[in-house]
Amino acid sequence: MNIRPYTVRVDKTEIEELKKRLQNTRWPDEIEEAQWEYGIPLAFMKDMLHYWKTEFNWKNVEDRINSYANYQADIDGIALHFIYERGSGPNPTPLIIPHGWPSTFYEMLNLIPYLTHPERFGGDPEDSFDVIIPSLPGHGFSSSPRQAGFEDRQAAYLLVKLMEGLGYNQFAAHGYDLGASVLGLLCLDYPQQVIGYHTTSPGNPSPYISADEKLSQEERNFLSYTKKWYNEEGGYAHLLGTKPQTLAYALNDSPAGLAAFILEKWYLWTSPPSGELLEHFNKEDLLANVSIYWFTQTINAANRYYFEGQHTKWPGPTDRSPVPIGVSLTATQPHERPPREYVERLFPTILSWEELHTGGHFVAQEQPRLVAERIRSFFRGIKDSGNREEG
């Protein structure tokens, strides 16, 4: 495996082109006094795009990304970008953290110091990690698969190969959303290589449930709510699961359209209905994520995971993973809070199940210290259990 250092650099002409396109945005009309019920509000978008054009500094984002050790690895025709930061403790645990959608590796940067150097924040250096944060294929600075059929299970295989190439035959994992779907399948296909798995999206991937399956009342309530949620909010998923290429022409051509598409999800999956997105994230971080999609032109490849998901071999009737799992539930997004017995259908070895009492879908950027503490606590429990067994 060819692994080489990588530096993020966007040419000045591309930055100037972005600003020119922002300047020439053709704004849509809007229903009077409309809020989020019609989609992302016009006033919000004008404010965000004004900031993007006049105040946002991509160089600051580049410097922050490049302050960490970036690499690319060639694996089966994919140039896989990843950040690799070593822990300071005597025996750091290797930990892979793939991102979700519509997000990038950038969201996970805030976790790094809490995981690699816990002693700087009142923690124990024995709980440190070697942190690997990949850009999933088709996202960020990884290359995009151009052949039909690349899906979550293939992404999981590439992550296993990456960890082996770094010298880790066993490793820990944390993920949510798309990253959780990939890691859940990884835990099914390569359980012997996973020390333990921590997640804030315990319903990804979903367990197999037959038509005549006996469900608890809590499971029935959860599935009923999930169906209602997708009926009201899942139009994007249906579109991307059927005709992603059609939407790509607009998203790849218009920075305003791309930002609206992504930021709407960050709002809806974070804030309560009366909340404000900027109470949870600052403009620079939000637009850094959008800018990565824009400069790398990866939104179409990222969206294709929805289409290819129609053909992924998802868990079947007999699939179970023996990997120990830890669950941390965020405060919002009820459709992401399945009951424990639902998760146990796929992951019967749940070692921890706890409430964070805060945060939404993008909790790793919203509450990085808290998430890092829960990750450390979960894997400390696994390590302590192993020490007791050896003793």
Automatic annotation (TrEMBL):
Identification of the protein by name: Pimeloyl-ACP methyl ester carboxylesterase
Similarity-based family: Belongs to the peptidase S33 family.
Residue stretches in coiled coil: none
SUPFAM superfamilies: alpha/beta-Hydrolases (SSF53474)
Cited InterPro entries: AB_hydrolase_fold, Epox_hydrolase-like, Epoxide_hydro_N, Epoxide_hydrolase
Sequence ranges assigned to domain Epoxide hydrolase N-terminal in this UniProt record: 3-108
Domain of life: Bacteria
Entry keyword set: Aromatic hydrocarbons catabolism, Hydrolase
